[in-house]
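Re: the 99-residue chain
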Amino acid sequence: MSFPKDFYWGGATAANQCEGAWNVDGRGMALTDVTTGGSVKEPRMITYIGADGKPGKIRSMGEALPEGAKYAVLDDCYYPNHEGIDFYHRYKEDIALFA
């Protein structure tokens, strides 16, 4: 099987598929940046710092952030979206693959 000479391949991504650089160049925090990795035994959670300065977690769906709390990245949590495919730092290599 062959493709016509004027055939063009295409590619597309969505922002949530191109994680990486979550704290670079003033991007600003998104909800996915404070969403932990889950497992069979533990659901994904949203992390925050409460008005009292204490860290906390809420379920990623259906729970409201406590009053006065702010979303935060906690040192003892794993955030898979911080890495992802890291398109921010690898876009030249990724685009070259299309060539």
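The chain has a mean pLDDT of 87.
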